[in-house]
Amino acid sequence: MVTGYARNAIEDQVQSFSVTLAHNEAHAQGQEGSVRVGLAALNGSFDAIFIVPSDQPLIAAGDLTELIGAFKKRPAGHIVVPVVHGQRGNPIPLDEVAHSQILASGTNLGCRHLIERQPELVHVHETANTRFITDLDTPDDVRSLAQRTGWRLELPALEAVK
Question: In the beta sheet, which residues pair with residue 3?
C-alpha cells in the first residue's frame, strides 16, 4: 500500500492489516510516482498485480473477481483495462512484463502512459460496471456519492509536512 497525502492517518487505519507500506514523498506530483513506488516495493513472483486507486470506495471483491476473470481470459496483452461506455476505468491488473517495463523506464512512466504508448500490451475489458469509473477526485464527487449512497463521508484534514 502506497501512502502519500495524509500518510499518518492512513497508516494508523491499516496498521492491523497484513500489508507492506511504501511512502511516496513526491505524492503531490501525481499518481504515476505512487505506482512506481508501489511496484518497486514488491518482492517475489506473482501472476498479477492490481493497481487500485484508493479513491474508489465502491470497488468490492466481486469487482476484483470480474477483473481477475478478464485477466485470465485475455487473448493477448499484459494489462487489463476496464472500459465502461467508452470511459477508461480502474483498478487494473497487470503481469510481470508490464511491471518490469514500468520499473525499467527512466521516467515516471505510470500505467496510463504505458497504455497510451504501447496499446499492444493492453486488453480492453468492456463492461457496464460503473463502479470502475466511480471515483472521488473532487469535493463535488464526495458530496455526490454521499447523496447517492447515504454514507457520511469526510476528507482527512491536511496534515503538516514532516
Answer: 23
How large is the angle between the packed helices 31-40 and 96-104, nearest 10 degrees?
A: 110
Mean of pLDDT values over 39-55: 91
- The residues spanned by each domain of the chain are 46-149
What span, in angstroms and rounded, lies between the C-alpha atoms of 128 and 133? 10
Domain 46-149 coded CATH 3.40.190.150:
no
Phi, psi of 150 (to 5 degrees): 80, 5
Residue 114 grid coordinates: 504505458
Give yes or no for a contact between 136 and 55, defined as CB atoms under 8 angstroms apart: yes
What are the phi and psi torsion angles at 3 (to 5°)? -105, 160
Q: Which of 144, 128, 112 is nearest to 63 (CA)?
A: 128
| pLDDT for the residue 117 | 79
**Cell 501525481 found at:** 30
**Per-residue confidence (pLDDT) for residue 125, from 0 to 100:** 96
pTM of the model: 0.86
